[in-house]
Amino acid sequence: MTKDTETLIRLPKRKQSSHDCLIKNSGCLWLSLTSVFTIVLIACFTLLWVYISSGPSRDPGSIVQRLFFRVKAAGTNVKQECAITDERKFDCHPEVGATKSICASRGCCWKPTTPSASNLNSVSSVGVPSCFYPLNYTEYHVGNISRTSDKITAFLSRNTSSYYKEDVKLLKLVVTYESSYRIHIKIYDPLHPRYEVPVEINKPAKIFGSSSAASSFDIKITESPFSFQVYRKDGHVKLLDTSVGGFIFADQFLQLSTLLPSRYVYGLGEHRATLLHSLNWTRVTLWNKDRPPVEHSNLYGSHPFYLVMEEDGRSHGVFLLNSNAMDVILQHAPAITWRAIGGILDFYIFTGPSPANVISQYTELIGRPFMPPYWSLGFHICRYGYKSVNQTLDVALRTHAAGIPQDVQWDDLDYSYGWMDFTYDAERFGDVPGLARTLHDMGMHYMMIFDPGLSNSQPIGSYLPYDYGMELDLFIKDNVTGKPLVGKVWPGTTVWVDWTHPKAQKYWTTLVTGFHNQVEFDGMWVDMNEPSNMVNGAVDGCPKNSSLENPPYVPAVHGGSLKFFTICPSSTQYTSSHYNLHNLYGLMMTKMSHNALLNARPNQRPFVISRSTYPGQGRYGGHWTGDNAATWHDLYASIPGILNFNLFGIPMVGADICGFRMNTTEPLCQRWYQLGAFYTFSRSHQERDTNSHDPTMFSKTLIDSTRKAYLLRYSLLPHLYTLFYNSHTRGETVLRPLFFEYPKDKNTYGIDQQFMWGKCFLISPVLSENTTEVQGYFPKGSWYDIQTGSQQKSNGQYVTIATPLDKINVHLREGCVIVTQTPNLTTTMSRKNKFGLVVALLDDGKSEGELYADDGKSADSIQKSKYNRILFSASKKDRQITSAVDHLGYHEDMVLGNLTIFNIGTKPSQLTVNGVLCNFTFSQNQVINVEGLTADLKKRLTVKWT
Ligand SMILES: *[C@@H]1O[C@H](CO)[C@@H](O)[C@H](O)[C@H]1NC(C)=O
Ligand SMILES: *[C@@H]1O[C@H](CO)[C@@H](O)[C@H](O)[C@H]1NC(C)=O
Ligand SMILES: *[C@@H]1O[C@H](CO)[C@@H](O)[C@H](O)[C@H]1NC(C)=O
Ligand SMILES: *[C@@H]1O[C@H](CO)[C@@H](O)[C@H](O)[C@H]1NC(C)=O
Ligand SMILES: *[C@@H]1O[C@H](CO)[C@@H](O)[C@H](O)[C@H]1NC(C)=O
Q1: Over the stretch 753-806, which tens digit does the pLDDT of each residue have?
Q2: Tens digit of pLDDT for each residue in 584-612?
Q3: Adjacent-strand bridge partners of 250
Q4: Which of 763, 499, 490 has its CA nearest to residue 617?
Q5: Which residues fall within 8 angstroms of residue 531, CB to CB, at 6 or more apart?
Q6: 184 touches 347 (CB < 8 A)
């Protein structure tokens, strides 16, 4: 047991003693008024202080408090300290039920606002707080500060109590300059180790040497009261400034507020919201929760990370490595408040300066995204409610029959027997092994779902996953009985795998491999891993007297309590309480599934898609945005959703195409297949009680437009795959907001109805009904419709683009060279086709591009250098395109079959490829097309025209 857990169990005892104090206090008060003995007075005031400052739930009108406040007020100038503009007020009473007297008992300022903001639960805006911190609110003071070249350490102490129980009165602050762009600020209890998030963090190989001298930032520490500012050396932009007060570090309440240098804040999820956050007293609650995505609610994952665009177009990011439930408040100041109910304060600040740099610096720390298998970039179809193996297979057959590419067919829990993991229903899905083989014969792949809750009610000896888990003693335990905690999921009563148990990996690998020996599935879909429960806490309820069940401050979680449709926070996992580990449950399941797949399918790249996520998960798998609905609003919301996950280092992400819940409509579904064809993870999926919405269920118009969109996607897959390589090796985003490419153009900061693929493609989908045009923003420059080559020149403006029903707008940016490949019904087949080269010439300057290629499936392609990387360069002025083979390690044929050049100007009289004269077509759009080439892409390429 760690010291931390001791701290946690001590709490109830402490509660006991504060009750004792209540009784003594009344006696003391009487004594103090009637006795003249100084010593008694001192004793009483000490007790009073302890009493008043220890609990938030006092009788508001008590004589004790009034007495205290006269004493306190005497020494300070209350008026001046409370003269704070609304936007700079920081909430001193975030719980429901603030009153003037309770506020005064906290030593805070009171000015009621209507409606009293903090009293509103589960709304978007918490509003101007009525009870707020005065300036120079008594907090921690710095002692013993020491600076070395790479580190600052200091002790922070407070001799008063905050109004939360169990203040940590002595803290240690360690500031480490980890690199020229990364600073680590850790505030923790040096005497009693507390829970820290057990995820792998890539620590710098060696501490960045000459500290502040070589770094782009510096930190200033104010000693009394303690605060710090992190600022850029150049221009002195303050990235963080905690001098606004309200710093508290108690056992179950850790709070830190900082001013922000601008109003452009992104990240902080998983939440459904616009990409650019509103600072209108917005509350973002993090506590992993199975809840169909709606605004203003905690959802499936937790990502305590934000990115800010500064006024001058530079960018920085902040990550709070803390996995406890928390609220994050954004207010107009502009400012942010972190309010977590456990752990420590462990901040990493990334100084960019470009937003792309920030994300790369973030994933350098938490882990780069995994390299996906090529087939996973194809089209996926799934539904809940297939009644038999035949129905599942039929979907793939009819999709291919309609000429629509599809790589992956999925099964939801339908395949299982009694909804139990690692079983299949002998009657309806008896031939699921045959299904997997048939799909493989078609060049396709097969995905199956797995849940972490396992049935505990099967006859002994009949359900290995339970029996084996009991044998290893690795299910999460009820904290009172010490027996496996029992809740309820699809198969009835269930127990949950404790992924922190030392044998969990061995257990999961054994089950996955054993099942894979029967059914050759290609990847794992891990669901219900928030974890989701169909009862609150456990079938027998949760312990009543646990401080983990009833923390003094409960973030604004959906349902009002931590246990709401999940397991008891007090339940026991091997390394800590579920209270601490809850938000990591999906991450750990994803990691163990990834590793299990590596064992079941040796040297095949694992593919795992998870509903619940936490930072660092991108290295093991991807995500879908959960149980969305078939509405136009959900169609739009998918864009900020997928963009955010690229910021979170999980670029393999998509939303259920056409909507999971509700019957979709053809107009919606038609536009959704077009947008969905540009998600990185492109899957159609739906709920059991809905009419099938795979493409062939609709009219020819929808089938045709869907085929067209996916043929376009498939032709661009070599480029998408290259983006994933850059994500995996350098931490680049795959899908990205426009401002990543145009950080100086503030018009792009709020755009979330369009997005980019890498730096070269701008996607502008139709997002509303009965519309055949899009108002799209085109950053300054020339853009080329990838399907026609027609040029869109822009000075940085909105443009109306005609978008008939069969079209999605995909524009190639000037200066880009991209590689395509003739599409086919599966990537297995399309990978054998010829490549194409598309060049968007700049009027002036070099166009550039690159291609990464490998066998698309080996786990060790990069490690063992079994890949090719080819760089392209083109110039309008020099009238030529050339390539250079940067790396050659993959020796399959790679033949260039065609070439397209946009913006070539006047018609050339002749064109040669590798010195050979070629026929070409020239269109009015100034587009050159060359077909029928057989150039080897693995050799240097030269195209010239005159
Ligand atoms: C807060 O403290 C600072 C530094 O000690 C001091 O300069 C300032 O006047 C104080 N502000 C108020 C309102 O007391
Ligand atoms: C902020 O939120 C409040 C309450 O929801 C609303 O009345 C107000 O209009 C909002 N202000 C802005 C600038 O959005
Ligand atoms: C599936 O189709 C095969 C061949 O058409 C048929 O023999 C079998 O009975 C079907 N199974 C189910 C469960 O419908
Ligand atoms: C109950 O929880 C505490 C704190 O997390 C832990 O120390 C203790 O071992 C748990 N007891 C059982 C029976 O799981
Ligand atoms: C979808 O429509 C079918 C009838 O076409 C109906 O039976 C079903 O209940 C509908 N589902 C939902 C979720 O409305």
Answers
A1: 999 999 999 999 999 999 999 999 999 999 999 999 999 999 999 999 999 999
A2: 999 999 999 999 999 999 999 999 999 99
A3: 167, 253
A4: 499
A5: 452, 453, 496, 566, 567, 585, 612
A6: yes
Confidence bin at 707 (pLDDT 50/70/90)? very high
Judge if the upstream peptide bond of residue 531 is cis by omega within 30 degrees of 0: yes
Contact 725, 693 (CB under 8 A): no
CB count within 10 Å of CB 441 equals 8
Backbone region of residue 659 per phi and psi (left: phi > 0; alpha: psi in -120 to 50; beta: other values): left
Which of the ligands is closest to the CA of residue 120? 2
| 299 phi and psi angles, rounded to 5 deg | -120, -155
Q: Which has the higher per-residue pLDDT, 60 or 917?
A: 917
CA–CA separation, 229 and 194 (whole Å): 25
Is any atom of ligand 3 closer than 6 Å to the C-beta of 390? yes
Q: How far apart are alpha carbons 672 and 666 in whole angstroms?
A: 10
* Most distant CA pair in the chain, distance: 111
Residue among 120, 121, 122, 125 whose CB has most ligand 2 atoms within 8 A, to mutate: 125
What structural domains and CATH numbers belong to the chain? Answer: 141-263+304-326+338-366 (2.60.40.1760), 834-945 (2.60.40.1180)
Which residues neighbour 285 within 8 Å (Cβ) at sequence distance 6 or greater? 297, 298, 325, 326, 327, 328, 555, 556, 557, 558
pTM of this structure: 0.91
| Ligand closest to the CA atom of residue 414 | 3
Please, which pLDDT band fits residue 215 given cuts at 50, 70 and 90?
confident
- Positive or negative torsion for Cα 277, 646, 711, 432: negative
Residue whose Cα lies nearest atom 7 of ligand 3: it is 390
Pocket of ligand 5 (CB under 6 A): 662-663, 689-691
**Residues whose CB is less than 8 angstroms from the CB of residue 221 and which lie 6 or more positions away in sequence, other chains included:** 142, 145, 152, 154, 173, 175, 227, 228
Pick from 270, 266, 370: nearest CA to 318? 266
578 pocket-lining for ligand 4 (C-beta < 6 Å): no
Collapsing DSSP states into helix, strand and coil, what is residue 603?
A: coil
Q: Is 527 among the residues known to form the active site?
A: yes
Question: Which residues, 6+ apart, have CB-to-CB distance to 550 below 8 Å?
Answer: none
